[in-house]
Specification:
By secondary structure, the protein is an alpha+beta fold. The chain has 7 helices and 24 strands. The relative contact order is 0.14.
Length: 466
C-alpha cells in the first residue's frame, strides 16, 4: 500500500494509496492520488542536504546500495546544473552530507565539489542505534536561510527511532522555516514506522514519502528523485482514473490543487493547471470507493490510470491491491445491463423499443422418490443417492451425493418404506447433455445410483462387543 509510482522529468513523486488492506463485501475505502513537482535547478538554485542512515541494521548490502544511490544523486544534480565537465555543481546549487546512527555527523558542509561529496559518502560505516532528531538538527544547521536558495532535505532511514529525543518537533520546525523534507524509508530491513515518516515529511505526506521494499531499489529511488528535482514543474496536468468493474465511486473530495470531476460510476478526471513551476509543490485528491459485489478475494483497485501534461512528463502510478471478504455471500448472476432512454426537454411522451428480453435460468431442481423393499421392523437403514449427468459421448459427470438415515418402523412384519423428496440442485452452467445452446429448456440426461443397508443388526463376532 505504501510503495510509490515511477516518475520521470518534472514530477518528483507520484502515488496512489488506499487507507485499508481489507474490506467486507459491499464495504467502502478511501483512495488517495498525489503528485509532487519541483522547479528546475538552473533557474531555482537549491541547497540539498542528504541525511543518510548508517545505523547497525544497514551493515552489508543495504549500505552499499545506499552509497551507490547517493553518489548517483550527486552526479545527476551536477549534470543538471552544467557541472559535468568541471566536477562542480553549478548555477548556485549546493549539496551537504549528514549521516546518523546513535548521533549525527556533518560529513560535509554545503559544497559544490562532486569528488568531495562522493568521498564523504564512500567513507560511511554502519553501526549503532538510530537518532532521527539529531540527524534533522545537524542537517538544519547546515542550511543558511540568508543564502536565498531553496532548501530541500532528503532523509533516508531503514528503522524506527531508538536513540535521542522525539524527532517530530525538529522536523516541524524545519518545515515551518520553509524547507522541503523528502523521506525515503527501507521497509525490508529493520522495518520503518510509516506514520512517523509521514509526520516528518512535507505535506501532503503521500507526495513526499517513498517506501523501498528492498535495498536493491534504493539506487533507483535516489536516481529518480535527483532527475526529477533537476527538471521543471508540470503544467496542464490531466489524470484520468478508471476503477475495476467491481467498484464504484461514491464521492470525490475537493483536491488540494486543481479540480476533479466524475466521468461515470467507475471513472474520474483530475486537472491541475500548473504544479511545481515556481517552487516545490504537492497536490492530492481523495475519493471514496464502494465494492459492488459479484467478485471477492484479492484484486487490484484500478483498471487504468493515465497521466498527461504539456511538458510530456512520464508518470506511472502504482495499482494498490485490496482483499475483499464476501464470507458466505455468493452472487450467482450479474446485474442486468441498463437500457438508456433519453427524453428531450419539450417532449411530453415518447415511444421507445427496449429490444428483446430473454428469459434466464439458474438451472433445475431434481426431486427423487425411492422405495426400499421389505425393510424389517426396528432397524434403521442407511441410504446413499449418487447422481451423475451424462454427456453426448456417454461420459458421466458428478453432480451430487446425499446420504440419508431412514428411521426404523415398528410394524410386526417387514414392509416397504418410501423415501420422498430427495432434492438435487442442477445449475444451468453445468449442462453437459449436448442439447441446444439456445434457450433454457434443453433436455438433460442423468443417472442415479442407490446404496442401502441396515444400520442396526444383531450380529456379534466371536462374542466380541461391537
Amino acid at each position: 500500500m505504501a510503495q510509490k509510482g515511477m516518475v520521470r522529468m518534472g514530477v518528483t513523486n507520484a502515488n496512489k494509496s488506499i487507507n485499508v488492506d481489507k474490506i467486507e463485501c459491499g464495504g467502502t475505502f478511501t483512495v488517495t492520488l498525489s503528485l509532487t513537482a519541483e522547479p528546475d535547478l538552473m533557474s531555482n538554485p537549491t541547497d540539498i542536504v542528504l541525511i543518510l542512515d548508517r545505523s547497525g541494521s544497514m551493515t552489508g548490502t543495504p549500505l552499499a546500495s545506499l552509497k551507490n544511490g547517493a553518489k548517483k544523486f550527486v552526479d545527476i544534480i551536477a549534470e543538471a546544473t552544467g557541472g559535468t565537465q568541471s566536477g562542480q555543481i553549478g548555477f548556485g546549487s549546493r549539496i551537504g552530507i549528514v549521516s546518523f546512527s546513535t548521533t549525527a555527523t556533518q560529513n560535509t558542509q554545503m559544497i559544490t565539489s562532486v569528488s568531495q561529496l562522493k568521498t564523504a559518502i564512500d567513507g560511511l560505516t554502519a553501526g549503532g542505534r538510530t537518532n532521527h532528531a539529531d540527524a534533522f538538527t545537524k542537517a538544519a544547521q547546515l542550511l543558511t536561510p540568508h543564502s536565498g536558495n531553496a532548501r530541500v532535505l532528503v532523509m533516508f532511514t531503514d528503522g524506527v527511532t531508538t536513540a535521542g529525543t522525539n524527532p517530530s518537533p525538529v522536523a516541524a520546525g524545519i518545515r515551518a522555516d520553509g524547507s522541503i523534507i523528502y523521506v525515503i524509508g527501507l521497509a525490508g530491513n529493520g522495518g520503518v514506522d510509516e506514520d512517523a515518516l509521514e509526520d516528518w515529511a512535507s505535506k501532503p505526506p503521500e507526495a513526499y514519502v517513498t517506501i523501498a521494499p528492498t535495498d536493491q531499489e534504493l539506487e533507483d529511488l535516489f536516481e529518480n528523485l535527483a532527475r526529477n528535482l533537476s527538471k521543471p514543474g508540470a503544467t496542464d496536468i490531466v489524470i484520468e482514473e478508471t476503477l475495476q468493474d467491481c467498484f464504484r465511486i461514491v464521492s470525490v473530495s475537493t483536491p488540494t490543487k486543481g479540480a476533479a470531476s466524475v466521468i461515470d460510476a467507475q471513472s474520474l478526471r483530475w486537472t491541475i493547471d500548473k504544479l511545481g513551476v515556481s517552487g516545490s509543490e504537492g497536490a492530492s485528491l481523495d475519493f471514496v470507493v464502494q465494492h459492488l459485489g459479484g467478485c471477492s478475494g484479492t484484486m487490484e483497485v484500478n483498471s487504468e490510470i493515465t497521466y498527461d501534461d504539456k511538458e510530456g512528463n512520464h508518470v506511472e502510478f502504482p495499482n494498490p491491491v485490496l482483499e475483499v471478504d464476501c464470507g458466505s455471500d455468493v452472487f450467482p448472476e450479474p446485474c442486468p445491463e441498463p437500457v438508456s432512454v433519453h427524453i428531450d426537454g419539450c417532449e411530453d411522451a415518447i415511444e421507445f423499443d427496449a429490444g428483446d428480453l430473454h428469459l434466464e435460468s439458474l438451472g433445475r431442481i431434481l426431486q427423487l422418490d425411492v422405495t426400499l423393499r421389505n425393510v424389517c421392523p426396528n432397524r434403521r437403514v442407511a441410504l446413499a443417492v449418487i447422481l451423475s449427468e451424462v454427456d453426448e459421448h456417454g461420459l458421466e459427470h458428478k453432480r451430487g451425493l446425499k446420504t440419508v438415515t431412514v428411521p426404523a418402523h415398528t410394524r410386526t412384519q417387514c414392509r416397504d418404506v418410501t423415501v420422498r423428496c430427495i432434492k438435487f440442485v442442477l445449475p444451468e452452467d453445468l449442462d453437459v447433455s449436448g442439447g441446444s445452446t439456445e434457450g433454457i429448456c434443453d433436455r438433460r440426461n442423468f443417472k442415479v445410483r442407490f446404496i442401502a443397508h441396515y444400520i442396526d443388526h444383531d450380529f456379534d463376532c466371536c462374542q466380541a462387543v461391537v
